[in-house]
């Protein structure tokens, strides 16, 4: 999930909010594999695993409500899985 701050979201950055975001993902049955601050088009990258795309959408909305950060979710699979799915 790529995140983009707005002015209000920047004002409320805190360790507590980050911990709440991680707990939100866990409550949806997910696992946080990494959280990164970025420079460029996006401000954040959350690497999370969730059971399905519907829960990814739910997590995106829940995290936006919690943080005010706009998220762009990009479901991904391992390249090995992709190769297996796309070859005979």
List keywords for this structure.
single chain; 88 residues; alpha+beta; Alpha-Beta Plaits; four-stranded antiparallel β-sheet; 4 helices; 22% strand; globular
Summarize this structure briefly:
This protein is an alpha+beta fold. The protein is 47% helix and 22% strand.
Structure description:
This protein is α+β, with helices and mostly antiparallel strands and 88 residues long. It has a single domain (2-86), classed as Alpha-Beta Plaits (2-Layer Sandwich). 47% of the residues lie in helices and 22% in strands. It has four helices and four strands; from the N terminus they run E-H-H-E-E-H-E-H. The chain has helices at residues 7-11, 15-27, 53-67, 79-86; strands at 2-4, 31-37, 44-49, 70-72. It has a four-stranded antiparallel sheet with strand order 2-3-1-4, with helices on one face. Strand 2 (31-37) and strand 3 (44-49) form a beta hairpin. Helix 2 packs antiparallel against helix 3 (53-67). It is globular and about 50 Å long.
